[in-house]
Every structure is written in structure tokens, then in C-alpha cells.
Amino acid sequence: MSHDFDHDGPQEGDGSLRSVGFDVNVYPAELERDVATTTGLTLHLRPIRPGDADLLVAFHERLSPGAVYRRYFSWHPELSAKEVNRYTIVDYVDRLALIVTDGDALVAVGRYDRVPDSHDAEVAFIVADAYQHQGIGLLLLHNLAGAARLRGITSFSAETQADNRNMMNVFRESGFHVRASIDDEVLSVRFSIEPDEPDLSMGTTDDVVHGADPDQSA
């Protein structure tokens, strides 16, 4: 649902990681939890592990061509070994991925990647076709935001295709004050995840401005 991220995590000499009290490459078991969908289905949410490579590959293979295209902006039927490593090996501070499982099957994944030397991160998530429209994208976004805030991140940004209504609906319903713009059929959004910013009972999305800088569209 977004472009791939090429940030490789913490930079040498970056003191921001130590300042928020989290050690890199330590699995955050406290982020594991059972979650309920809007249809009453109980699923399990947890951080991704390197051992989830096969689960991720199988998940990608089950996605419809449309879902894959909206995520990668191109036809992308298979994940390369490099991509699988990058998506499953995270440091849990600057790069975090959360997965949702139904039994032994992976049904959704969301991730953030911190922009180097900043308090901003890019966010993306994708839900298996059969599990869409059950609030799972929103669950991923809120859990990613909660983890990111504790790790010193204050805002999220994302890009998706302008006609990706599912992703835009997630942002609209998130309660965060989302600033959005469209340029060349790409929708860019940016929003603060600070705890005093969102009203989680009602989402708001600014008018989309074609060709505008997302920071100028509010």
C-alpha cells in the first residue's frame, strides 16, 4: 500500500535510540496481543521475527494482483530473498513490523521505517483480501503509532495510489488529523501521532490538494 522503504535503521553515532530507552534488536514481547476485528474474529498481533520468512512469502503469494499493485506500485508477484530479509529482520526501534495471524496463517502486516536522523517515519500496511473491511488496517495503524511514540517518533507519512480508497479510509477513521495531497496520481499523507493530537472517536482528513506539498495542504 506504499512504496518500499530503503532506510536501513539506526545510523552510526545516532544517540536518539539510547534517549528513548529501547535496545535495538531486542524482541518487544510487550507488543504481542490478541485483537478483535469488527466482525468479531479474534486474531493475534505481534512483532515480526526473522523466522517468519516463510509465512511472509506465503502471505504475499495469496494476495490478489490488485492488492500487490497498490502496495508496490507495480506488478510484483514474488518477493526476492533480499526483500524477505529486509522485511523480516528489523531492529524493533527505528524499523518495526507488526503482523496479524489467524492460527498459523499471516493475514496482515504493517511497518514503520524511521527517516534517518528525524522523529518522522514512513508507514505502510497490507491486509489479505479475505480479511479486508474488518478494521485490521486500523488496528495495525494504532498499534504501530503507539509503539512508535514510545520510540521517539512523532509523525507518520505514507504514499499510495490516489484511487486506493481502502487505505484512505483507514487514515480517515484513525482519529489523526491527516494532511493529504495528490501529485501524478500518487496520494501523499502526513500526520502527527502525538497522544494529544488524535481524537480516536472521529477521524478527520483535510481536503486533498492536487499537486501540492503535503505540508502545505492543511
Describe this structure in words.
The structure is a single chain. With 218 residues, this protein is α/β, with parallel strands linked by helices. It has two domains: 31-153, Aminopeptidase (3-Layer(aba) Sandwich), CATH 3.40.630.30; 154-218, no CATH class. Helices cover 25% and strands 28% of the residues. The protein has six helices and ten strands; from the N terminus they run H-E-E-H-H-H-E-E-E-H-E-H-E-E-E-E. Strands 1, 2, 3, 4, 5, 6, 7, 8, 9 and 10 form a ten-stranded mixed β-sheet that branches. A hairpin with a 5-residue loop joins strand 1 and strand 2. The radius of gyration is 16 Å and the shape is globular. It starts with 15 loop residues before the first helix and ends in an 8-residue tail after the last strand.
Q: What is the chain-wise order of helices and strands?
A: HEEHHHEEEHEHEEEE
* Overall average residue pLDDT: 82
CATH architecture of the largest domain: 3-Layer(aba) Sandwich
Rg, rounded, reads 16 Å
Q: In the residues, how many domains can be counted?
A: 2
Characterize the biggest β-sheet.
10 strands, mixed
Q: Can you identify the CATH class of the largest domain?
A: Alpha Beta
Percent in strands: 25-35%
Outline, from the CA principal axes?
globular
* CATH T-level topology of the largest domain: Aminopeptidase
Helical segment tally?
A: 6
Give the helix proportion (percent range).
10-25%
Determine the CATH superfamily of the largest domain: Gcn5-related N-acetyltransferase (GNAT)
Distance between the termini: 23 Å
Classify the secondary structure makeup into a structural class.
alpha/beta
Would you identify the regions where 5 or more consecutive residues have pLDDT less than 50? Answer: 8-19, 197-218
